[in-house]
Each structure stands twice: as C-alpha cells, then as structure tokens.
Amino acid sequence: MRENRLRQAWKQGGAIVNGWLAIPTGFSAETMAHQGWDSLTIDMQHGVVDYQAAVNMLTAISTTQTVPVVRVPWLEPGILMKMLDAGAYALICPMVNTREDAERLVAATHYPPMGNRSMGPIRATLYGGADYQPKANETIVVFAMIETRQALDNLDAILSVPGLDAVYIGPADLSLALGCTPQFDDVEPPVAAAIDHILARAKAHGVVAGIHNGTPEAALKRIAKGFQFVTIASDARLMAAGSQQVLAKMRSSAPKPAAGASGTY
Predict the structure, then answer these.
(1) Model-level pTM?
(2) Which residue in the list 34, 46, 110, 212 is annotated as catalytic?
(3) How far apart (Å, rounded) are the C-alpha atoms in residues 243 and 240?
C-alpha cells in the first residue's frame, strides 16, 4: 500500500504544512497540489464542495505526492466511509465532543476487528494499491476536531480512544465556544490557554496535534510549540489575496487615464 507521508513525517518528528481547498474543481486542486504542499484538505463541512467535486479533486491531487485529506461535514458513518473509499488518506471530523463520539469516529474509519467500516474501497485501491484493505487501518490517519467546551471537558477521554491518531483545533469555533471573538492567530487569552492545554494533553497521550492558522508566521510559532500539522490559507483566500496585491500595485502606480477616457485605475 502507498505510504502515508503524514505518518512518515510524524515518526521523524516533523511537521506537515497543509493547504485548504474550498474551490470545487479538480483544476484548482491540481494547481495547488503542484505547488508542493505536504497535504491538502478538501473542505466538505463549510463552503461549496459536494461529493462529486471532492472525488474529482482527490483524483487531481493524485498527480502529485501531496497527501489527500478530507474534512467531512459531520460525524456520520456514511460520508466517512465514502470519502475513504474515494481515496482520502486522512479524515478530519468536526465536533467530536465525547469519548463516545471519538469511538464512533474510529469505528467508522477502520475495518473489523478494530471498527465497522464496510468493505468497498473502489477508488482507494487505485490510489493506495491492491493491498489497501489489509493495510488501511495502520495507514489511514483520523483527526478529531476539538472546538467546543464539551470537548475540552472530555479531552482526556477523547484522546485515550485507541485508533485516534490526531486532533485538530479550529481556533475560530473554539473562540466562539469560549465566548471570545472568532479568529485564527491572535486569539484571546482564554482561547490561547485552551490551545496550549489541548497541545499538552495530546502530547501526553501520544496523539498528534494540528491547528488552523491565518498566516505562515503564526503557523511557524505553533510548530515551534509542538504542533505537527498546520494549515495555512485556502485556495480561495490565496486567489483573493493575490488579486488584491496585483490590483493595489496597479492602481497605486499606473498612470491615471485622461479626463473623459475609459479605464478603472
């Protein structure tokens, strides 16, 4: 079976630089993948990506060594199994709030006897290899999102579930849950404390910690703290930021059109 480069990097103590895909097309996913991201996450929870678009995006990512990751819409066995069958090599599941939630997540993403995942890795075999099924349990990576007060209260119970490889922090939702302004990087003190606590407890349980970031600077600081999976920007945000940069330069430097002439500078 194709090696999961997330696991390879983590075993060596390294961190994964992850990009985010919100545009529902194979071409944009392929373009992002060819830039050299360690992994790319297709976001099916928020935004406009549906199942068929996600399959096309997974196929496009497969033209590179970038690891294909999917954030599913919710903790629902059908979509978890379907995205694994489509070739996702890691899944991020939102709103895992209790040990029971984490156990359901692990069960749906692992074949028996470890779980109850149904057999049918249609595209996953094309991507992972003919021996996909017997090696999938030890290869696929499963993230539980920690983003609520309830999850914080149950953190050690969640982290102790066998088969849970990693946790992923959404700072914006965690901020909302703690009564703070939602943001990625310059979070308020209660959120910063919660993030540090999640990281420390994850390390204690031997579970990888990941987090969403708004800037490379914030991501680098969090890697220095011990995070081993950092997301920086989405395709849509990068496109918008690049366009703004070009237009700002043009409109500040280009000659102004003569009075009465057409133009938008």
Answers:
(1) 0.94
(2) 46
(3) 5
User: Residue 152 and residue 158: Cα distance in Å, rounded?
Assistant: 9
Question: Domain map of the chain by residue range?
Answer: 5-235
Query: Residue 133's closest CA among 149, 118, 148?
Result: 118
From CA 187, how far away is CA 180, in angstroms rounded?
A: 8
Instruction: Indicate whether 262 pLDDT > 70.
Output: no
Reply yes or no on whether the pLDDT at 182 is more than 80.
yes
Cα dist. 18→6, 142, 201, 240 in Å? 10, 15, 22, 19
Predicted pLDDT at 233: 87
Active site residue 46: yes
Q: Is 204 exposed, middle or buried (0-12, 13-18, 19+ CB in 10 A)?
A: exposed
Helix (H) or strand (E) holding 120: none
- The answer to whether domain 5-235 has CATH 3.20.20.60 is yes
